[in-house]
Backbone:
C-alpha cells in the first residue's frame, strides 16, 4: 500500500481518536513495516497533519468544554443565590425560583435552613446563631454585620457546591478557548 493511502488512513483514524496501537498494527501489516518504523510513520503523519486532526476534533472539544463551562456557571449562580438569598430576600421574579422551589419541596436540592435545622436537631451543630450573636454583641459588633456573617456561615453547605461550580466554569472556559485557539492559532 502506498504511503499516501496509509497517511490518509492514519489521519482518519487519529481524527476519531482510535487506539494508536491498532493504527500502528494496521500500518505494519499494510505497509510491510516493523513496529518501530510504523510508529515513526504514525508520529510523522500526526505531526504533519496536526491542524487537520485538531479541526476534526473541534466540534466535540468545543461542545464538551462549553457544556462544562455552562454547568459551572449554573452551579455557581445557584450556590451564590442559595448562600445570599436569606440576606437578599427573593431578588429575582418568582418564576425564576421555580426550579429551586420544586427541588427543595421534593428533596432534589438542599435547602440551607432545613439542613441546618436537621443537623441541630441531631445535635451535630451547636446553636451557632445564639453564640455568634451574644459574642458579637458583647464586643459591640453591629447586628447587621452579625447577620451577614451568619448568612455566610449558614450557607456552609453551599460553599463546596460554589467551589465545584467555579472550577468547572473556569476549566470549561479555558478548554473552550484552548481548543479554539489551537485550530485558529496555527
Residues:
Amino acid at each position: 500500500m502506498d504511503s499516501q493511502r496509509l497517511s490518509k488512513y492514519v489521519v482518519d483514524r487519529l481524527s476519531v481518536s482510535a487506539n494508536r496501537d491498532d493504527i500502528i498494527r494496521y500500518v505494519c501489516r499494510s505497509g510491510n513495516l516493523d513496529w518501530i518504523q510504523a510508529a515513526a510513520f504514525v508520529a510523522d503523519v500526526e505531526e504533519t497533519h496536526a491542524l487537520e486532526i485538531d479541526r476534526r476534533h473541534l466540534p466535540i472539544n468545543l461542545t464538551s468544554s462549553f457544556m462544562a463551562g455552562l454547568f459551572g456557571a449554573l452551579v455557581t449562580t445557584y450556590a451564590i443565590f442559595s448562600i445570599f438569598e436569606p440576606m437578599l430576600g427573593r431578588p429575582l421574579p418568582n418564576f425564576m425560583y421555580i426550579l429551586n422551589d420544586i427541588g427543595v419541596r421534593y428533596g432534589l436540592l438542599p435547602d440551607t435552613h432545613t439542613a441546618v435545622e436537621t443537623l441541630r436537631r441531631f445535635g451535630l451543630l451547636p446553636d451557632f446563631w445564639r453564640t455568634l450573636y451574644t459574642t458579637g454583641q458583647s464586643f459591640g459588633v453591629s447586628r447587621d454585620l452579625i447577620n451577614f456573617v451568619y448568612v455566610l456561615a449558614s450557607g456552609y453547605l453551599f460553599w463546596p457546591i460554589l467551589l465545584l461550580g467555579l472550577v468547572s466554569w473556569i476549566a470549561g472556559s479555558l478548554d473552550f478557548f484552548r481548543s479554539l485557539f489551537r485550530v485558529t492559532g496555527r
